[in-house]
Amino acid sequence: MDIHSVLRRPVLTEKTTRAMEQQNAYVFEVASEANKVLVRRAIEELFSVKVVKVNIRNRLGKLKRTGRSIGYTKNHKEAIVTLRAGDKLDIY
Predict the structure, then answer these.
(1) How many whole angstroms separate alpha carbon 55 and alpha carbon 36?
(2) Average pLDDT of the residues of the chain
(3) Other C-beta atoms lying within 10 Å of the C-beta of residue 44
(4) Predicted confidence (pLDDT) at residue 92 exceeds the cutoff of 80
(5) Residue from 75, 57, 52 nearest 16 by CA
(6) 44-to-17, 48, 63 alpha-carbon distances in Å
(7) pTM
(8) Which of 22, 26, 55, 65 has a CA that sits 20 to 30 A from residue 42's CA?
(9) Distance (Å, whole) CA 84 – CA 49
(10) Cα–Cα distances in angstroms (integers) from residue 50 to residues 76, 81, 82, in the given order
(11) What is the DSSP code string of 28-87?
């Protein structure tokens, strides 16, 4: 798998912004085939930083109702990447 196709987008919410400031941890939506090794390699090569820890979680889609129709949002995989102290990512 190509390192450019591993990372999909950063997840920017209030909770992830707080984690960036306090714990130096960043959250990315990643490809469903990605694992911890691929995510670590992609972050280190694309951003030139040192990754300390990678956690991955699978997020199930939420149930959405619009009138009579019922559907789900898509399932996706997220990676929480903790960087070495002093390293920063400019993802805004």
Answers:
(1) 7
(2) 94
(3) 15
(4) no
(5) 57
(6) 20, 5, 36
(7) 0.88
(8) 22
(9) 8
(10) 25, 10, 9
(11) EEE-TT--HHHHHHHHHHHH---EEEEEEEEEPPPEEEETTEEEEPPPEEEEEEEEPTT-
